[in-house]
Task: inverse folding
């Protein structure tokens, strides 16, 4: 019997069509898992950096800048970040309420609102 060995996760040696398909599927799945792990690690890194470093801009700022280019009237974005402790408590509450009224009642995902949205979309809404 011939010596069969693995190289880079792919099976070297004579295989039937089914064996080749399984080998290729394993290779693709490993690549997908690695890509997802790198993406997750990168996301965590960005969140950690943004914990201490102010973001260079917001999605709305980017949208406005692109719109200005499309309209042929470029604009300059100006922003001044204010420290959290210099913002009024009332404004903090208003911003949070405007984004998510149940912010203080969940851990990042409003499961009830997600379920309601799924039902709404299933009904064609």
Result:
């Amino acid at each position: 019997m011939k010596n069969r060995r693995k190289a880079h996760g792919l099976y070297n040696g004579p295989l039937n069509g089914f064996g080749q398909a399984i080998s290729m599927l394993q290779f693709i799945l490993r690549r997908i898992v690695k890509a997802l792990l790198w993406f997750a690690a990168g996301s965590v890194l960005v969140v950690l950096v943004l914990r201490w470093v102010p973001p260079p801009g917001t999605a709305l700022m980017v949208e406005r800048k692109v719109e200005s280019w499309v309209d042929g009237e470029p604009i300059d974005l100006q922003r001044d970040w204010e420290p959290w402790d210099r913002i009024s408590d009332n404004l903090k509450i208003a911003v949070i309420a405007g984004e998510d009224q149940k912010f203080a009642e969940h851990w990042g995902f409003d499961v009830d609102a997600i379920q309601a949205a799924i039902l709404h979309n299933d009904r064609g809404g």
Q: What stands out?
A: The beta strands are 5-7, 10-12. The CA atoms of residues 105 and 111 lie 11 Å apart. The longest strand covers residues 5-7. The mean pLDDT is 83.
